[in-house]
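FORM 7B: Structural annotation worksheet

SECTION A. Query
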Amino acid sequence: MEFLATLETGLISAVAIIKFCLESLSIACVVIGLIKTLQLAWQSNRHRRSHPSFSFNQFRIRFGTWLSLALEFQLGGDIVATTVTPTIEALAKLALIAIIRTFLNYFLSQELETELALEKERSQLTAQDNLRDF
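SECTION B. Predicted structure
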């Protein structure tokens, strides 16, 4: 029995470390996404006159992609944490968190797909306009 208690303690410690790592990756995704988005904004501001095609949607797409990845890491951390303490309360909390994050991720993905389609349509229209100018 002492061996099992030692294993359980080790498992709890390992899960805590894994959860911490996943949550840290989530935070890193948000920070990296913010930095990359700010870089894009800075570049578009510098090149606004020569490349007027930069739009706010590109910033949203860039940051939204990173947020979606961050949500995946957060959900993974919650799942790992619940494996050690599978009480009814913990499982209900995980289910609620999973549902909320899944909906957030779903709607974020839908919005990103819509934005990408709009960007593609705009670039095609711009290309057609450029061809007409010749």
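SECTION C. Observations
The chain has one domain: 2-133. The radius of gyration is 22 Å.

SECTION D. Sign-off
Analyst initials: ____
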